Amino acid sequence: MLTIDEIKDVKFRTNRGGSFYKAEDVDSFIDDVIETFEQKNNEKAELVHKMDILATRIEQYRSDEETVRNALLSAQKVADSTLKEANEQSEIAVKNAEKKADELIAQAQAEVKKEKDSLVALQKLANEMRTELLMKVKSCIDIVDALPTDNVVAEIQEKLSKEFPTPAVSEEVVEPKVEPVKVAEPPVEVEKEEPAEEVKEEKKTDPALEGTTKFGVLKFGSNYDVEE
């Protein structure tokens, strides 16, 4: 295949006279030019065919692009609508959460206030009990302080010994004679045929039962003698 430069710079041989070109050179050049133009035409036809294919594809791409654009616009609208709805729902959810949080905070604050009031009441009651207990303790301390000490008791004993002297007692101590304790006999059952009044009279007139208890016969007054 010839190039433009080869066509421009082509040179033919001449015959002996130099006035004519050799026919075989001219014919060979023409054949090369024809071949070159045929190839160019084929390439042009192929390029045109490719351009047709590309144009068809471009039209298809444009159609697809329009479809894609419409789909994108629809998707964008759906996305905007979904986003708007999601924002509205999120705002509602946030407001509800804030309202719930405020209610919980208010409830917690009320509980804290209630507990604080209870604690203050307990502290007040404890303070009152402390004051009362301190007063009682102070009263007990005052009573204890008012009691005589060993020194005071010794002074009183010494004073009483001086004012009211007592005679010396013999060291021999006579131990009192202890009477043995008699176990009381069980009461005698009274027959039903006997009247109750007569039984009472017998009890009154029976000297053996006088002074008898569950500890035995007890003696009081003039009947009691230590030396017995």
Automatic annotation (TrEMBL):
Residues 185-210 are annotated as: Disordered. It holds the Pfam family DivIVA. It comes from the Bacteria. Residues 83-132 form a coiled coil. The keyword Coiled coil applies. Residues 197-207 have a biased composition (Basic and acidic residues). Keywords: Coiled coil. PANTHER family: CELL DIVISION PROTEIN DIVIVA (PTHR35794:SF2). This is DivIVA domain-containing protein.
